[in-house]
């Protein structure tokens, strides 16, 4: 590994740097769990979980709620449709658009994915005390809400 920076300008001390490192670590843990148990990538599992949680969605809404761009959401939706987990139907509110919904097989896998997601999240947070988890939850909610206000 390269030389560590020291002093008040150390990148490793920056919140955004540490958050990025944590995101990479948690993405890897979640991807490994979904791949090993469900043969789904993190992106595919995230879409499956989003449709399961919110019900039928347009691809645009699915991307927004999954924090993916529309093209990523569209490609992953196509993969999940080919796997028989999602079905596209016409959107009565928008004749040009489609809605994406879980199939019966998709609902079954959604329940498994939700369990895996919860247990993996619990494992990631296991190093924290109950009080630290509560504080983290409060802080994250505040930062996310503040980010929404500036969008």
Provide an overview of this structure.
Residues 12-145 form the HTH marR-type domain. This is MarR family transcriptional regulator. One of its GO terms (molecular function) is DNA-binding transcription factor activity. It is built from 6 helices and 2 strands; from the N terminus they run ααααββαα. The chain has 151 residues and is mainly alpha-helical. The chain has a single domain, classed as Orthogonal Bundle (Arc Repressor Mutant, subunit A). It has a two-stranded antiparallel sheet. The longest helix is centred in the first third of the chain and has 24 residues, at 15-38. The model has no long low-confidence stretch (mean pLDDT 91).
Provide a brief overview of the structure.
The chain has 151 residues and is mainly α. It has six helices and two strands.
């Amino acid at each position: 590994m390269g030389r560590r920076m020291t002093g008040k300008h150390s990148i490793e001390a920056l919140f955004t740097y540490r958050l990025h490192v944590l995101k990479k670590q948690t993405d890897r843990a979640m991807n490994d769990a979904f791949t090993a148990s469900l043969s789904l990538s993190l992106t595919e599992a995230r879409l499956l979980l989003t449709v399961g949680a919110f019900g039928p969605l347009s691809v645009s809404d699915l991307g927004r709620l999954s924090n993916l761009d529309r093209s990523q959401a569209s490609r992953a939706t196509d993969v999940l449709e080919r796997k028989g987990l999602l079905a596209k139907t016409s959107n009565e509110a928008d004749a040009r658009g489609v809605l994406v919904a879980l199939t019966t097989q998709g609902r079954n896998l959604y329940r498994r994915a939700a369990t895996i997601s919860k247990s993996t999240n619990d494992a990631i947070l296991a190093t924290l005390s109950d009080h630290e988890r509560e504080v983290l939850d409060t802080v994250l909610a505040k930062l996310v809400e503040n980010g929404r206000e500036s969008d």
